[in-house]
Design brief:
The protein has 341 residues and is α+β, with helices and mostly antiparallel strands. The chain folds into two domains: 218 residues, no CATH class; 117 residues, Jelly Rolls, CATH 2.60.120. The protein contains six helices and 25 strands. Strands 1, 2, 3, 4, 15, 16 and 17 form a seven-stranded antiparallel sheet that branches. Strands 7, 8, 9, 10, 13 and 14 form a six-stranded antiparallel sheet that branches. The longest helix has 15 residues.
Amino acid sequence: MRVTGRATTVSWIPTESVRNWLRGGFDLRVAHYDDPPRDVVSGTEELRALWLDDRFRFANLLTGWADFDGDEVTAGYGEDSGAFQGNTRLRLGAGTATFLGFSMPDLRAEPEIGQERVVLRQTVGGRTGVPLPRPVKHPPYVVWHAPIVWTTLQLTLTRDGGRQVELVGASAFPRHWVYDSDGHLMAKSGVTRIQDWMDHSFGDRTPWGDQDSPAMTVAAESAAERELSSAIMRGGQKPELLRLPEGTEVVRQGTEGTDVHLVLDGVLDVSVDGDPVAELGPGAVVGERAVLEGGRRSATVTARTPVRLARVPASALDLEALRSVAEEHRREERPSPENHG
C-alpha cells in the first residue's frame, strides 16, 4: 500500500509586527507588510502562483511517499519538495527595485522507517538580498547580511493511511502558517521575536550550522474569527494596540467587559473556574461572549508569552459577526461523539 502526503508552511510579515528602527521603512512604505495568506493552498501549482505574485516571503513544501508491502517498508521525498524563496521589492522614489532572495541548501533527513510509520523531515530557508547591517551580541559583533529565515517540517505517514504534519522548528521571525496534507490551514507559529531573530539567526545559530529553534505553534483560529479580525484591523474604528508582558491577566472571569481583543502575536491561556480549557494564538478573538451574554467575562485569559493585542469596543463591531465567533467557540468546546459513550 502506498501512502502519500504533503506538508507546507507559508511565511509572511503581518501588519504591526516590526518595531523600532526597522519600522521606518514600513511606515514610509519603502517596504511592505503582507496580507494574510489563503486558508487553503491546494497544491504545488497554486503555491507557485502565489509565490510568483509576491504573496509571501518564502514557503517550505515537503512531499513524500511510503510503500508498506508486508514487512518491507520503503519511502522517499517527492520531486517537488523544496523552498519557494521570495524576492524583496522596495519602493524607491517613483519606481521599485527588486532584490533577489538567497536560498540556503535544502536539508532533508534520511527517512526514518519503521514497520508502522515513516517520518520525513525537511528544513528550507534563506535570506533577503537587501543588506541589513546591525550590531549583534556575539562574534563577529557586526553583521552585514540579513538574518536567515527557515522552517523545519515533519511529515509522518502511517500504514493505515494516516498523514500527520508538524512544524518542529522555525526562525523567530516572521509568522509561519502550517498547512496539512489536504492543503488546509491547521496551525500557526505563536510568537514573533524579531530582536532575537536579528541577534542570533545567522552562521552556526541556524540549522545550517548546528542549531534549530523549536517552534511554539497553536491551532489555527476559526473562519469566523478570520473574518472578524479583518473588521477589527481594517474597520471604521482604529483599534488600540497593546503590548503586554508574560503573565498579564488580560480579562478575568466574572468581571464586566465590553471590549473585544484580537491576538496579533503571542499565546494566551484560557481557564474557567481555575481549570485550563484552551490556548489561543494569533488571529484568535477574545471577549465576544461577555458582549452577547450579559456583560460579564466567562473565562480568565492570561498571557503565557509576551503578547500583542488589538482592542476595540464591541459597539464598533457587527453583532452577527460576534455571534458567529461565539457559536464556533461553543462548537469547539462540545465533547466529540466518541466521548459520549
